[in-house]
């Protein structure tokens, strides 16, 4: 995994970019159906959503997750367990915060906010967890390895 601040920044940028891009398309298509207009809408929403997601990841979720992960893992735990537990903490935080963001930008601050937020979490968490563990994690570690020219171990 990244060891320096610069490496953490690069890794976080790549991961948030990938996850945000896929998840915003997933949500727009889920709510509006698959069409050219849905893809256009997702692309228009992406820049601001990426900035919000990056800020949430860098300043909130990443810090909390990295404090909690060591409490649930031992040094000798298998790599796959480390991947699952780490992804669980990151995805739980990000799905919760970004589902709230999605509820706010689609419904605004209304009486439906809480129910929309909970519905969004229930739709986003399973998709984001699968995406993180099965696709984004391995892919971003591979890209990070190429970009930073360092061997990245899977954690």
Structural features, described:
The chain has 155 residues and is an all-alpha fold. The chain has four helices and no strands. Helix 1 packs across helix 4. The radius of gyration is 16 Å and the shape is globular.
How is the topology of this model organized?
Elements: H1 5-32, H2 36-72, H3 79-107, H4 113-148
Helix pairs in contact: 1-2, 1-4, 2-3, 3-4
Label the overall shape. Answer: globular
Oligomer: single chain
Number of domains: 1
Largest sheet: none
Helix tally?
4
Low-confidence residue ranges: none
Q: What is the overall pLDDT average?
A: 93
- Using only C-alpha atoms, the radius of gyration works out to 16 Å
Strand content bin: under 5%
Structural class: mainly alpha
In whole angstroms, the N-to-C terminal distance is 7 Å
**Helix share, percent:** over 70%
Strand tally: 0
The sequence of SSEs as H and E is HHHH
What would the keywords be for this entry?
globular; 4 helices; 155 residues
Write a brief structural summary.
By secondary structure, this protein is mainly alpha-helical.
